[in-house]
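[scheduler] slot 2 assigned
[scheduler] job type: sequence-to-structure, two independent chains
[scheduler] chain ordering preserved from manifest
[runner] begin chain α
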Amino acid sequence: MYSKRLSEGTAVRVIQGIHQSDPSYRAETVGVIETWYEEPTGAWFAHSRNGKLWLQRLRLRKADGEVSVLTIDDQTRLHLIESGEEQGGDLARSDS
């Protein structure tokens, strides 16, 4: 997955969506990676490490200093932000 290619201090745009709703929902979060880690949920899941469901978490620091922790799944898209590119806040919108 992404974590092997992205390191702390990398500016990214994270695009996540819910596609089963009508209309579908899309959210973008922009920030600098503070850390990337796996964390177990409270849910039990057979045939997994320690019987738990493990999720990938991405901790970002936004331009205004706010910290967001996002759950990364196979539908999440990450885009590197090149220097000089806009690193504004969050965008959340519905896509028709």
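[runner] end chain α
[runner] begin chain β
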Amino acid sequence: MLHVLLCDDDELFLNRMKSRVEAFLRSQGEGFEILAYTDASLITDRELTLCDLALLDVDLATPEDDGIALARRLRAFRQDAVLIFITNFIEFAPAGYEVSAFRYVLKRDLEGIFNTYLRQALNRIRLTREVYPIWVDGKKVELPVKYLEYLEVIGHNIAFFLRPIPPETAGKRYQIRGTLSEIAQDLEVCGFLRVHKSYLVNMRFITKLSSKGVVLDNGTVLRVSQMQYNEIKQKYLLWKQPR
């Protein structure tokens, strides 16, 4: 169950946003509960504790309960909640860094990018639950990220290679239509590295990285981009540092 919090002092806009979020989540096969408020002071601590995704107007009518103040309250309970700020004024954007906003959207731009940002937010939430969902033959398949070895571009498809974990994925390889760049944006936060235009690799399985290729712990060897090698190496070494 995904818990979504919406807050905007424009009731008409709030209802329109709620309808859009509901339609999108239904299209993704996601169970959800949406709470929508025009007054931030009415939002309880319990509701903030449950919140997975928050879409907040920055410039609410009451200064002491504006969107930034509400976001601070949210962060006190949920550091992992995905936060999207929505407003009419671009000058509020820098304030979003303070509370680790995921996206910042001007209301006038909402129609063109709303579903894209919702998809990215939903993928971020799912990845914190350690699964990556794909659609295969009209059915949703949730791939366990820790067993996802690497992705490869094959023609116009993306192939997902998984470690054998019986019974769900033993010996399986899934293919979907899509672009590796788009998927990389989702998976890089989980320790995946784009080593070549055709490969995205789970760094936990890498045993050796050189300009000649990347070697995985099961002996698989994949190509590495020569032009991007120094940048790739820096990202890998940074990931390997103790955290």
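[runner] end chain β
[qc] chain β: The mean pLDDT is 87.
[scheduler] slot 2 released
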